[in-house]
Amino acid sequence: MNKARLLLLLITFCLCAAIGYMIANEVGQNPLPPTSVSNASPANPATPQNQENILILHVDDLTSQTPRLVSVWMAVVSYSDPSVIFFKSLYPRPVGDQGVIPFDQFFSLDGGRHLSANFVSNAQAYNIHWNGYFLIDQYAISSMYAYALGSSIDLFNEPATTPDQIQIVISKETGLLQAACNSIPTIANNNRVFHWSEFIPRHFRTQYSFEDLVFNWDRLISANNSPHCEVAP
């Protein structure tokens, strides 16, 4: 399996688990740009060795000088048999929820366009820990979804400021992930090429190196049964 095919599978799988299965069949014909890697890694020492926490941050436009945060999800991947991917919405949260984390107040990027040290320290203060993160904008999400499922996705692409907007963000992104989870058995045959040069690093950044992704993918597929996917809004 070449790098373009594997990396596309891994990234999209962690964003919406089912899409990864389809991309596994891609015949990558274009070279893959190097992934953009950050060294910040506030992993929780208590995280079991068979579990990985992946922070997924959706912003409006990574090419902007100051990208705006739209949502934050945590993907908890358990490497068991079957493997389990559990998506939990962290931000925004419905008005009245207890313990809401104001990610929008401390979200920022450093000079290399990765999560800043200030963001990392503030997240740790709220006991948010991760082994790696995906920073992805609206353009990349929409393109991946269209490539994988053959249809468009209408997401809210700006910070939610009212209760109604918050509910729209949570509902639409929960629906995106749930639809992908439900489509695992039916999207395994897509041989179209995905042009990664259009997305990395302008619309997608990650803390993972390619070697990390390969290692995690091997762990994920080592089980005898297909991974189970759940979404918790």
- Tell me the fraction of residues in β-strands, as a range: 15-25%
Low-confidence segments: 1-5, 16-39
Number of helices: 7
Write down the Rg: 17 Å
Structural class assignment: alpha/beta
Oligomer: single chain
**CA(first)-CA(last) distance:** 34 Å
Q: Kindly report the spatial arrangement of strands forming the biggest sheet.
A: 5-4-1-2-3-6
- Structural domain count: 1
How does the major sheet shape up?
6 strands, mixed
What sequence of helices (H) and strands (E) makes up the elements? HHEEEHHEHHEHE
The count of β-strands is: 6
> Can you give the helix content as a percent range?
25-40%
**What is the arithmetic mean of pLDDT?**
75
Choose one word for the global shape: globular
Helices and strands, with pairings:
Layout: H1 3-15, H2 17-23, E1 51-59, E2 69-78, E3 84-91, H3 103-106, H4 117-125, E4 132-137, H5 138-149, H6 163-182, E5 204-206, H7 210-221, E6 228-232
Parallel strand pairs: 1-4, 3-6
Antiparallel strand pairs: 1-2, 2-3, 4-5
Helix pairs in contact: 1-2, 1-7, 2-5
Protein model, in words:
The chain is α/β, with parallel strands linked by helices and 233 residues long. It has one domain. It is 33% helix and 18% strand. Helix 2 crosses helix 5. The longest helix has 20 residues. The protein is globular and about 45 Å long. The termini are far apart. The N terminus is likely disordered.
